[in-house]
Amino acid sequence: MTEQDIQAVVDGIVRRIREAPLDTAPCGNFFVENVFAPELYREMLARLPSDEALDFIKHPDAVAPDGRVTRKLLDLTPASLKRLPDEDRAFWTDMEAVFTAPALQAAMAEKFRADLETQFGADPPAMITTPLFYRDLPGYRIGVHPDAPYKVATLQFYLPADESQIHLGTTFHERTGHGFRELKTNPFRPNSAYGFVRTDESWHSVKTLGAHEHKRNTIALTFYHRGFQYRSEM
Question: From edge to edge, which strands make up the β-sheet containing 192-197?
Answer without folding.
Answer: 29-33, 192-197, 151-158, 216-225, 127-136, 71-75, 55-56
